[in-house]
Amino acid sequence: MHPEIERIQATFEEEIASVKNSSDAQTIQVKYLGRKGPVQGLMRLLKDATTEERPAVGKAINDLKELVTAKIEACLATLVSEEQKEQLEREKIDITLPGRKRRLGRKHPITKALDRVIDILVGMGFSVQYGPDIETDYYNFEVLNFPKDHPARDMHDTFYISGDMLLRTHTSNVQARVMERESLPIRVIAPGKAYRNETISARSHLFFHQVEGFYVDKKVTFADLLATLDEFLNKLFGGEIKTRYRPSYFPFVEPGLEVDVSCLLCSGKGCPLCKHTGWLEIAGAGMIHPEVLKNVGIDPEEYSGYAWGMGLDRLVLIEKGIPDIRLFMENDLRFLKQFSGV
Ligand code: DAH
């Protein structure tokens, strides 16, 4: 073989042997096989060769070219797979590592209390109905026997929206809506928010949660009301409480009652929470006023009914020992996280 071809092959072999990465291999590829590279330069030998020598010289150059090409390709192929291996190693995912924990959502303590109340009352034969938070003066007051300018309206510091529209001041607004559209007998509870324009403090807020309950049928009696409330409150508080009913006034019931339970903190012995009376006031109730029944087209001679309304927020405050009602509305996770369970 021609000494120059041999020399080029020898230096090529040396260089390709010391290649460390694919960019080294590419540099050698350009250097040896480029148009101005040594292999191409060998073409010069063809010119100087005699006619007899020429085929042999041509073949030798071609062989070298093929050898160089093949070795570079082989080298690149192994280097690429090395680099891929490194990349795979870098990007490896350890599927045996424990996953990131997802935090479980929790229900708001008031929602939980509401669920409990609904559960008990549905078990006692009531069905759940909802009414609007934005209400007309008619359903919030008028139909419930609060005529315009009636002093009982002063008990409700009302947010008026415009004209006749307002934010309901109690969930009693659902009473007439349901009585107008459902056929008798009706046994319904209506949970929801109520709104009053009061100064916000640790003990009161602009909105709070109530559950209204009512039953209209033939021969519904005052004894039915007391028995139903007794059973409901005993189920709600675990049968360890006493109930007490005191006369009170609400325009839409007659007679009207204030419903008390023995203090949940001191069991009736007397403590600061119950102002040493042993009792907590938790609901209003009464026999539905004949005027209300008339207003929705029910004959009070034939039908009678009872109704009650209770607030939830204060109950949860007491039960959970929460010092400030505003915590319910602020959605602070540090507060909400403290109420585990569903
Ligand atoms: N709606 C009254 C309030 O928010 C509570 C109430 C009292 C509801 C007596 C009733 C009832 O159904 O009979 O102050």
Q: Mind explaining what this structure looks like?
A:
- With 342 residues, the protein is an alpha+beta fold.
- It folds into two domains: 3-91, no CATH class; 109-339, BirA Bifunctional Protein, domain 2, CATH 3.30.930.
- 39% of the residues lie in helices and 19% in strands.
- It has helices spanning 3-17, 22-33, 38-41, 43-48, 54-90, 109-123, 137-140, 173-181, 222-236, 290-295, 313-320, 333-336, and strands at residues 127-128, 134-136, 160-162, 165-167, 186-195, 207-217, 243-248, 253-262, 279-288, 304-311.
- The strands form two sheets. Strands 1-5-6-10-9-8-7 form a seven-stranded mixed beta sheet, sandwiched between helices. It has a three-stranded antiparallel beta sheet with strand order 2-4-3.
- Helix 1 runs parallel beside helix 5 (54-90) and helix 2 (22-33) runs antiparallel to helix 5.
- The longest helix has 37 residues, at 54-90.
- The protein is rod-shaped, with a radius of gyration of 44 Å.
- The model has no long low-confidence stretch (mean pLDDT 92).
- 3,4-dihydroxyphenylalanine binds at residues 170, 172, 212, 250, 253, 256, 284-286, 307-309.
